[in-house]
Amino acid sequence: MHQQERRRFVKTLVAAAAAIPAHGLAMQSTPGSIKALAFDAYGTLFDVFSVTSLCEQMFPGNGMSLATMWRTKQLQYTLLRSMMNRYKDFWQVTQDGLVYAAHALKLDLTADKRTRLMEAYMTLAAFPDVKPGLQQLKAMGLRLAVLSNGEPKMLQSAARSAGIADLLDAIISVDEVKVFKPSPRVYELAATRLTTAKNGIGFVTSNNWDAHGAGSAGLTTFWIQRAAAEPAEELGYPPAHVVHLLTDLPALIRRT
């Protein structure tokens, strides 16, 4: 699905969900076993492809190719650096991925263009279901956190820009353990920082491989399958629950 069509589709679903009456949401406690939720950031809360328009503005005809390859190399470099035991923070990895993608596509990435594209990562657009979904979950008395590969300042800036910073109890970065997902050391941070037992924490991500990683580490996993045609990974620890929007979570968690 084209990126603009996907965003319109998500907005339509969010509007439909908002039209359904929600009785007794305000400050009610969660009856189930989940006491806290940790959310992946990039691709789950924040749309990494919201940089595409700026890429296209700078490099007409190459915007989508640049944005896609940039994201691919960004993720690849996190995995390679973890395997090499040569950690660099997510800001540097993101910049390295951008430089590689520009070289691969034979684009003239000047210092000014690189800076502007990197700064765009500080204010990525949030998906339209994110803020209303977090508000509903917060009203249920759940503790909410971000658990991300992102560098702390990147995450804090994106959360402020999206207007969700005040809904989060913690922003947890892999910078604390100097290794990227899907290392189990990353997912273990959730229990430590949220002072909640693993069996009381749900991990929410739109990246299926991330759900496998968290499931392998003992967390209850929720996969937001934003693209209906996206297949599941074959890693042995499939998500416990599958939804299509973050706003689908409150009703599901009440039953969990």
Percent strand: 5-15%
Order of helices and strands: HEHHHHHEHEHEHEEH
Tell the overall outline: globular
Share of helical residues: 40-55%
Query: What is the CATH H-level superfamily of the largest domain?
Result: HAD superfamily/HAD-like
Q: Whole-Å distance between the termini? A: 31 Å
> What's the CATH topology label of the largest domain?
Rossmann fold
- Number of domain modules: 2
Tally the beta strands.
6
Q: Summarize this, please?
A:
The chain has helices at 3-18, 52-58, 63-84, 90-104, 111-120, 130-139, 152-162, 184-194, 208-216, 249-255, and strands at 36-39, 143-148, 170-173, 201-205, 220-224, 241-243. The chain is an alpha/beta fold.
How are the SSEs placed, and which strands pair?
Blueprint: H1 3-18, E1 36-39, H2 52-58, H3 63-84, H4 90-104, H5 111-120, H6 130-139, E2 143-148, H7 152-162, E3 170-173, H8 184-194, E4 201-205, H9 208-216, E5 220-224, E6 241-243, H10 249-255
Structural features, described:
The protein is of the alpha/beta class and 256 residues long. Helices cover 46% and strands 11% of the residues. It has helices at residues 3-18, 52-58, 63-84, 90-104, 111-120, 130-139, 152-162, 184-194, 208-216, 249-255, and strands at 36-39, 143-148, 170-173, 201-205, 220-224, 241-243. Mean pLDDT is 90; it is low at 5-31.
